[in-house]
Design a protein that fits this description.
single chain, 118 residues, mainly beta, 5-stranded mixed β-sheet, two-stranded antiparallel ribbon, 2 helices, 11% helix
């Protein structure tokens, strides 16, 4: 992803609006869902990287925490002075393997968190 910062975040999964044929040949500048898979990078993914995605206006950001078998869901990006990139997520949820998550872009889709875990 190209978020216009001095660093490109290199997310593990991004979901963009449209069809594969409608996508430009350049890196996307936004996404309807960004997913990071964290093992040793958890602190960075829920800290600085979350601030970067919030600053870019990503409305739905998920972090799969492999070490603790859970899913962090970040939503509602807003300015937040204390964050590295000046933004944070107002709504944050922590879900376990038996919980379900629905992407904002497809609210009728329900994903069992356990299905995202190894």
């Amino acid at each position: 992803m190209d978020l216009g910062q001095t660093t490109d975040p290199e997310p593990d999964v991004i979901v963009v609006a449209g069809t594969p044929r409608s996508q430009p040949p350049t890196a996307p500048k936004t996404a309807v869902l960004v997913v990071e898979v964290a093992d040793t990078s958890l602190a960075f993914d829920i800290g600085d990287k979350a601030s970067l995605y919030a600053a870019a206006g990503i409305a739905d950001y998920w972090v799969v925490d492999l070490a603790h078998n859970r899913l962090y869901v970040f939503r509602d990006p807003r300015p937040e002075a204390g964050q590295r990139f000046g933004h944070g997520f107002f709504r944050q949820s922590l879900l376990g393997p038996a919980d379900r998550a629905s992407p904002l872009a497809a609210p009728s889709a329900s994903i069992l968190v356990g299905d995202l875990l190894p």
